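Q: I'm writing up a methods section and want to include an example of the input and output format. Could you take the sequence below and give the corresponding predicted structure tokens, formatted cleanly so I can copy it straight into the document?
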Amino acid sequence: MDPRAADAGQLGSVALVLLGLLGGVHLLYAVGWATVLAPLQAVFGPTDVLGAAMFSLGLVFAAAAPIVWFLASLWFTRSRPVWQRIAALIAGAVLLVPWPLVVGVQ
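A: Here is the clean output for your methods example:
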């Protein structure tokens, strides 16, 4: 029996650490978006009811996007090689940076 066949379904320790780090980055991004965008609603939020509801929905989607990206990356790359899963998570970490937090918009 081939020993590599038994380990084919398991992640290596480096891949597991990378997944944990990237998961933490995505979680911090979600917290960053939530903390930055919540005060902006009072400043930039529209005055009508529909506009305010849509603006609030956009804030929720912005804060949830990193978590959704992480879970979708894990789900859609479950039968792919580990490097593709890590590449998808790195792409999410690059694309979902909370820029208002980085540049200091308050």
